[in-house]
Amino acid sequence: MRNKIDKYFFDQFISSFALVLISLTAITWVAQSVNYLDFVTEDGHSFRVYFYFSLLNLPKIFTRLIPFVFLISLFFTVLQFEKNNELLIFWTSGLNKIRFVNIAIKIALLITLLQLFLAVFINPYTLSVGRGILKASDIGLFPSLLKEKKFNDTVEGLTVFVEEKKNNGELIDVFLRIDSSKVDQSKTIIAERGLIVKKDEQNILVLFNGTIQTEKRKLYTEQRHTKINFLKFYKYEINLSAFTTKTTTFPKLQERSTIALLNCFDEFKNKFILFKKYSLDEYRCRDKMEILVELNRRMGMPFYIPITALIICYLLSSRRESKYFNFHKYVVFSAGFAILVFAEILVRYSEKTNLHSVIYYFTPLLLLTIIYFNLIRVFKFENLKN
Is the pTM of this model over 0.90? Predict the structure, then answer.
């Protein structure tokens, strides 16, 4: 009988949790995807790249929302059971409140493991794949980014000005400035007309009737010498795929694997010999404070979820018929939300010293112990046998 009650409550909670999580994730993903439209409108990436990159950010959104969604799902599930007098049925059937608290803790631990798995393994991987897609993509929508009488510098090292752009795609009076970061030279190209064509799935800018001005800069002793060459052409082709957009392609900390971040610390350097390919170089390991915050957020934040579960259990100490019930439920929800805010604030200061990190990880254990034994005290008149 009790196992059926446990399963019934678990099923009701999971249904609510899944519905709220999917709904909030969809809203957040749509709002975030709007911001990523800059990859198309300003950086020239294709809609396919935009869609894949946005889709790969879903696990990150899931992970960020899970603690809050767990809080509101458990809160409203308990309230719904109270409203339908199902909790009263539980008590009369022999289920005591401490057993109910234990059920809530088991559910919280399950959600904690889910968030840990997402934060430690899945998120860094999907975010890294998304960044790799941006890095490997070409400027597929570059033709649509060219505007008449405007300088366009979407592409790294390339500035384009077009006097007129006809409906058939022909460009009139084209000015290009190419700055090479690999060699100390630059090119200025002026052409009467141009056209962007596709060759082997690559964008080729074909220019007609123009001049190429090449500037080569050399350093002689204390003086800088510039040599300028002019070359006239009838037809000149530029492979636009050789250029990259200004989109950031260098992986951020949140896109690095957990093992790679751990390898930045001496305590873990020789612990992951089989995962050397995931190690970061010395330069990327310099900012250890930020790395520590990222690691603490991934591995510490999930352990604050069980605390919110215990706080929600304080709803069991008041009946719906009580005149203070509405005030009581708002206090309980606010306390649970405050724990999540507190955890987010605490993780930002966890990199100050080793003591701060210890406090960050020790706090959930301490609060869990205090709140659990306080719940036993509150329900001391209940039958505590499971």
Answer: no
